[in-house]
Every structure is written in C-alpha cells, then in structure tokens.
Amino acid sequence: MKWFFCKKTSKGAKRAPFLFDIIDIIGFINTFWEDEIAPKLIDGQNIIVAAHGNSLRALTKYIENISDEDIMDVEMATGEPVVYDLDENLNVVSKKKLN
After folding, report:
1. Is the dihedral of CA 43, 44, 50, 55 positive or negative?
2. Is residue 70 part of a domain?
3. In the predicted model, what is the mean pLDDT of residues 53-59?
4. CB atoms < 10 A from the CB of 61, how many?
5. Does 90 fall in a domain?
6. Do 61 and 82 form a contact (C-beta atoms < 8 A)?
7. Is residue 12 one of the residues assigned to a domain?
8. Is 81 part of a structural domain of the chain?
9. How far lies 93's CA from each of 20, 23, 98, in Å?
C-alpha cells in the first residue's frame, strides 16, 4: 500500500476569512485519515493527497507518530512528493522523498 502527498502553494491567493492552528488541523486530519484514507488503504487502494503545509504536517505527525513538540520543527519542501509504503496495519515500512 502506498500513500502519496505533495505540497502545493498558490501565490497571490487571498487569505481565508478564518485560520486554524496546527492543533485544530491535527484534529480534522485524524478524522479524515480514519474516515476516508485508512479504509481505502486497507482496501488495497493507492492514495494521493495534495494539501497545504500544515495539513501535510498533521498527516505526517499522525502516520509517523511524531510528538507534539517535534512536529513544530518538521519542514516540507514545496512541491516535493513523499511516498510512504505501509504494511497491512498501516504502519510505515518506508518513506521516500522524490526530489
């Protein structure tokens, strides 16, 4: 099973009328993972996720079990795809950055 994600920016886009901090986003992402992504992976599908940096950081925190303190130091290069190979229990077997 593979899980792909790629960060994409949109220069010149207007700021949303509301902002969420990383803690809010982690809550949303955990639910999205459990409800949408994990069932598809368990079913043998490959998933591509393209999202904003904090959303990707939250997903990374969740699947790699990164602590709250350490996730604040995680940086992700714009446009750099990351491929995760996961086992049948959705544990990370390998991680590869495609730079």
Report:
1. positive
2. yes
3. 86
4. 21
5. yes
6. no
7. no
8. yes
9. 31, 26, 16
